[in-house]
């Protein structure tokens, strides 16, 4: 067994066909098929079954794919650590985060780094799929979901959950600067799906106050939520900076703001732990300075 063969195997897992995997890995289809057959002989396992025109993992294949990703991540981490020892610097770090965080602040934060810093390579996933990416090549995660205790973590921001109110809406009369969750429930709402942390915070507050919201639609794309709000389809709920014809109002649950924490986390034994800690604190400072969405959620309702 060799690392390259594991990469071929995972390419088939991810693409679902030998043809697509061969194209992705830039080898001929017959060569890819031979690599998979060789791996199965080495392991004495059947890794795939055919369903229609796709290859689907067997139960053994699913378990082995998890181990293969961990092996490759370990090898890549070792290679990066060795390079760091040779050069005396960390060349790059892979950051796993949500699309909202990547688009909402991380790209702008990366723009503040210099050539003396590690190059930050971003990969995105759903909220609750971020932490497992530490087992598949990510050096650092930035997540609104609480992280495991064995990870080293830094709270880098307290993100406000906004109501995106379209221009001309009655909620904006008389210079409204915030809105109570109970008041929001008088209107049609566009909310994230239950797979997001902000939705779970929203639902918990709804239950706490025994409210009955009118949910018109669900979307996990923050820009789409804001777009739907701008066009008058409802009041959107989210954490992204506002854009278009909307006003972002902080949401209050009783006398506290609705918000969620944003964490940076990594394995404490990571070879670049010191560099990651420095970047995490710099991201914390960046967020504290740039936007009201990252302010402490300790204010009272205006």
User: Portion of residues in helices?
Assistant: 40-55%
What is the fourth-level CATH superfamily of the largest domain? Answer: Periplasmic binding protein-like II
Low-confidence stretches: 293-300
Shape assignment: globular
Counted beta strands: 14
Radius of gyration: 23 Å
| SSE series | HHHEEHEHEEEEEHEHEHEEEEH
Approximate strand percentage: 15-25%
Helix-strand makeup class: alpha/beta
At the fold tier of CATH, the topology name of the largest domain is D-Maltodextrin-Binding Protein, domain 2
Mean pLDDT: 89
| Total domain modules | 3
Query: What kind of sheet is the major sheet?
Result: 7 strands, mixed
Protein name: LysR family transcriptional regulator
Family: Belongs to the LysR transcriptional regulatory family.
Keywords: DNA-binding, Transcription, Transcription regulation
Domain HTH lysR-type: 1-58
TL;DR?
This protein has 302 residues and is of the alpha/beta class. It has helices at 3-15, 18-25, 29-43, 59-87, 99-112, 181-184, 197-209, 222-230, 273-290, and strands at residues 48-51, 54-57, 92-97, 119-124, 140-143, 152-160, 162-166, 179-180, 188-191, 214-218, 235-238, 246-253, 256-257, 259-266.
Secondary-structure map:
Blueprint lengths: L2 H13 L2 H8 L3 H15 L4 E4 L2 E4 L1 H29 L4 E6 L1 H14 L6 E6 L15 E4 L8 E9 L1 E5 L12 E2 H4 L3 E4 L5 H13 L4 E5 L3 H9 L4 E4 L7 E8 L2 E2 L1 E8 L6 H18 L12
Parallel strand pairs: 3-4, 3-5, 8-12, 9-10, 9-11
Antiparallel strand pairs: 1-2, 5-14, 6-14, 7-11, 7-12, 12-13
Keywords: DNA-binding, Transcription, Transcription regulation
Pfam family, one: HTH_1
Organism: Brevibacterium epidermidis
